[in-house]
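User: Hi! Is it possible to get a structure for several chains at once, not just one? Here's what I have:
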Amino acid sequence: MSTFRQAAATADVAWRSRAADQVLDSRRRRRYRVSTFVMVLVVLVVWSVQVTIIDDTDWERMGSLQSVLAAAGEFLAVDWALFPSLAGPAVETLMIACLGTLLGVVICVPAAWFGALNITPYKPVTYPLARLMMTLSRSIHEIVWALFFVAVVGLGPLAGIFAIAVRSVGFIAKMSAEAIEDIDHGPVEAIRAVGGNGFQVMLYAILPQVLPQVLGVIIFEWEINIRRSAILGLVGAGGLGLVFFRQLNTFNFAGVTAVIIAILALILLGEVLSYFARKAVI
Amino acid sequence: MAGSAGRATALQWRRFRFPQSLIGHGAWIAVLAFLAFSVDHLEIPLERIPDMLGRMWQVLASRYYPPDLAYILDRDYLDYVVETIQMAYLGALFGLLLSVLLGWFGSFNMTPSRRFVYPVARLFTMGFRAVHEMIWAILFVSILGFGMLPGVLALTFFCAGFAGKLFAEEIEAIDMGPVEAMRAAGANLFQTVVFGVFPQVRVAFTGISIYTWDVAFRAATVVGFVGAGGMGWYLKRAVLQIETERVAAIILSIVALVIVSEIVSAYARDRVMRMK
Amino acid sequence: MPILEVRELRARYTSSGPEILKGVSFEVEADDFFAIIGPSGAGKSTLIRCINRLVEPTAGSIHFYGTDVTTLPGRQLRILRRDIGMIFQEFNLINRMSVMDNVLSGRLGYTGNVRTLFRAFPRADIERALELLQRVGLQDHVDKRADELSGGQRQRVGIARALMQGPRLMLLDEPTSALDPKISREVMGLIKTMAEEFGVPCLCNIHDVRLAMEFCNKIIGLQDGVKMFDGPTGEMDQAKLDQIYAMEVL
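Assistant: Yes, the chains can be modeled jointly so their relative placement is included. Here is the combined structure:
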């Protein structure tokens, strides 16, 4: 065994020991970092629990666990007799969701066009404008939108349709804009090369590429919109929500459960339909 | 001969072939008919809509402008904002903790038992998800009374369903190679999840968690409508009293908070992307 | 005495599906570097995965150092698996983790749940991982993420991970078919050297017959779930190969 090989072996051992120290050290630091993070989370939880739950709850009025369970138990009964009268409102809810989604898609066209960096007509103005539209649409809850539209167009389904449309714009437009930004540029050049104008480029080069993805997003949003339209009755937009609140205000808890079951059935129907629609699209 | 056969097919070219064209056109016609019927059934005054859009602009300009900024800078209101954030935080956090389990148990490839745990987890996820957050809030308010506790619970249920489904989908989409490798090395189910699954879904989970937080915050701003705490109550009062300039201010404050939370989320997502 | 005895092994994925293995038997000795060759779809991967029961065999027996693998319950199965290292075709590394963590994951069978959660492996494991990384020539990449490495480097991490288990048998599932020919030969050479040095017998699934002839001392030829050839590499010739790969020509 040469001295050189021995020296190399010793160097290896020394390197290993040093490297192991480093590895262990970085792991320790990582653990400290993670535990600090977790501690912050926990402190925030404790503080929030203190403020929102312990201080704010009127424990005496709520009563014992038994009375709470008894209150919850009232929802376990189902008022089956209510179901025949739910068909009409259920159809209305579905219609509001469909029309709302459709209108939302119409509003989305300019929003997605302006909001995609690669095709936005005038970047300094149209792009921020589209982004603002998307953020506004997404950051305001459908209930608030519905209230606004009730104030403008009065009670009724139209306010619900507007609310759903405006609320849908953010998500559909954002996803569509992202899809447009990700397109393959080849077809765009090809259409330009045969002398196509901007509109033709959009129709023949961009739309076919993003269509399946965008339709998928629209179907997804439509499914959510059924859920949304079911509660817009709260602010007077008709449909199942209205029946729901009527039952609640008359303390007919079995009826409330019946309406919830009807909503679930409607959503299930929506999921089945969207499954087939998605298959047809892709 | 081959050439003429080719021309014959070329001449017969149609955009759609017979069965597909029937189904395709049929579906479109059915959808359009349904939409037309809806417009009729809901008695939507189509001719008045352009007029309404004009009025909408007028209403916005005259009644919602200028927003009453002093109102949202008031100490009481800011307290409510903080409470809303806390409610959203707790709801999102508890919901996410629950949804990690739901996602794991409800993913077909990693569930501990396909026969029992999987369908149960799926059912719970679907149930939590299908019911709108406002309905959860109403239910909890009528069981527990007014306050933030029902709000937090409503958000928890809603977030658990919302994130649970997305988590399960992420887990089902992972590459099973590392999972197989961990199994081959003698790791148990928990270890396989920690080493084989978690690193693959970490970025997606962070994204989904942030998204869930966004959604929870938006929901938290309105559960107060039905008495479940937070700034929703303020909003409802302002709306009912037709204090439109205050409504505008409150909506502005919500948008500002959402924008701030989006900036923070983008930063967090970037950090997680680069983690080892 | 053979360390691994496979008798009349049968396997199918679904009860109604086709039988992938139709009664395969063979034995691996303590100093073997054993190749399984055959056309794609012959059941090579299934055969190798039956041995550590990543795929459940439907009939037959597998004896590993005298224990019957096919009947082991959960916990014992995991103890068995940590004695068997495995190297995969697609490397199966955890892409978002560092090279170090990937190698350490070979020790999971010896590590508790809490340590796993905090990735708190003992110092001895870390030093061993460093030694192995040095041996496979990755000492400068310890802190990199696995997805920053090239294919050959990734498979070296895979080798280190398998050896980290301190295995008594190594299963190699097409270890080189995701690599280019030059790197393939290097990686096979490395596996062979390491296996000899650590005294681990290997059972290697391999598509490339030339690599099999060059590195392995025994060969099994598999065709459509049936063993067509079993013997020392020297006895393999072109006629037998043609027979084994006859199906693939069609």
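Chain B touches chain A through 57 residues (CB under 8 Å). Residues 231 and 256 of chain B are 14 Å apart (CA to CA).

User: Great, thank you!
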